[in-house]
Amino acid sequence: MVCPYSLTVPGGVQQQVLGLARAMRAKGHEVRVLGPCDGPPPESFVTPLGNSLPHAANGSIAPLAPDVPAALRTIRALNDEAFDVLHVHEPLVPGPSLSAVLMKLAPVVATFHSAGESAAYRVFNRQLTRIASRIDIRVAVSKDAVELARRYVGGEYEVLFNGIELETFAGPDVPRENAVFYVGRHEPRKGLGVLLEAMRHLPADVRLWVASDGPETAELKQAYGADDRIEWLGRISDAEKIRRLRSARAFCAPSLRGESFGIVLLEAMASSVPVIASRIDGYTNVATHDHDAVLVEPQNPRVLAEAIARVLADPRLSSRLVAAGVETAKKYSMDSLADNYVEIYRRALVLEESDVTVIEVPRMLRRFEDRFLRRSGAPRSRSGGRAAGERT
Fold first, then answer.
1. What pLDDT, in 10s, does the model give residues 274-323?
2. What pTM was estimated for this model as a whole?
3. CA quadruple 244, 281, 90, 95: dihedral positive or negative?
4. What's the confidence (pLDDT) of residue 300?
5. Residues 238, 240, 246, 247: what is their CA dihedral angle, to the nearest 10 degrees?
6. What is the pLDDT of residue 192?
7. Cα–Cα separations (whole angstroms), residue 392 to 84, 90, 272, 369
8. Helix (H, G, I), strand (E, B) or coil at 185
9. Which of 225, 291, 296, 338 could serve as 221's disulfide partner, Cβ 3.0–4.6 Å?
């Protein structure tokens, strides 16, 4: 699997890549993850490709590694491992993902995560369309991600939900504190400012836990730092995130736009905490208003405050949302997602064996073609074949 974003920086795509790899390895498949790492790799199965640099993308800051050294490390890793299948996440993002697609040393399965708008897709759509033709099977995490990719690069896409590692969030009941929990980057599209403004309309005994940081952190602290009900946690570990989810009385995701899939909502549901979120496309993909979440008009602090107050004050509503949320989360298990991808990998191998897809090295590297292991007849797996599970 190839990830364009730094695997040591918290993020939705990184979380999906690592979780999916863990689920597949547990099923006996040999999986390695290639991606930038700013520090020690987070898992033993991760091959680091160098440090990342922050780049503005989709209203956010993405930790990318689009430099030549990272590309060369990607090529070296792909050649040394001679993988049977390449599963490339965000395949058109500069860095390891784009390099892996251009190399195409094995059948390529690609997962598109982004939704909303993309300046890069709009400006470079002609070049990206040609590059995307090297992808054998295209997957998108939601209908909104399909719409973005199809608008600029065309093609057909299968929709496969993001997954969560249910066992990570499950646990015994613990005493709940009268607190609302927020976790996400502090940037305009995440809507943290709306939630902070909503706190002014909530009772004095309601606290807010704000995790993570971002470009708006200093400005928001200056505007709302005097409110001692707000606890600024900064970046927290996964263990601390789970502890806060299981200790809060509500989880709030006030995003304004740019969400392709509501993975944070599912994590909260799996943690048995009621969810209040904006009614935006990315969140309505997984949550249903007044069933497993309360969904409100985005960018309206007073309406958001009213929804939070209602959930905190009504134990029957809270219990109903939690019970339905737990059942919703079960439908999105990482284990099921892994099974779906394994079948897709097998289809990709059939395409190669049937000569439907062509593994062709880019022109600039053809002088080194005899050095590429998988093309020169070297074994495709350490077990000598694919019977023991594809290597991804």
1. 999 999 988 998 999 999 999 999 999 999 999 999 999 999 999 999 99
2. 0.80
3. negative
4. 97
5. -160
6. 98
7. 6, 16, 34, 22
8. coil
9. 225
